[in-house]
Design a protein that fits this description.
With 130 residues, this protein is α/β, with parallel strands linked by helices. Helices cover 15% and strands 23% of the residues. The protein has one domain (14-129). It contains two helices and eight strands; from the N terminus they run E-E-H-E-E-E-H-E-E-E. 21% of the residues are buried.
Length: 130
Amino acid sequence: MVHHSLLPEDGEPIRRVDRSDGEQPPGAILATDDDVVIRQWAARHDAEPATGEATASGPATVDVHDGDAGIRFNFPGVARFRPISWDEWLGNFRRHALIFVYEQDTPGQPPAYRYRLVPSQKLAAARMVR
């Protein structure tokens, strides 16, 4: 299986989705800022909102270099970040104007855990399609 970047360099558009878009093609690279879509993805992947940085809810636990957004997901068996509430995670997501980019799962294959949190200005309008 070939793994391509979630952010293709060749200018290939990324499909922007929200909760009203329904099912997407298997393996598609998708982007959203819809908190319902993000939470549904997290639930399907047993992902828990987390951070490595110091916040009002606790101390820094991991040295994270990602432009100060600091939010991540913990997955079962791979929980190296400090768990935080969804309110804190989504507040950070909005404050840093991020877009959640992820790979749609393909039926019959293991779940696609690949995701990126990308500043919205990095995804030029020309690369986003509806």
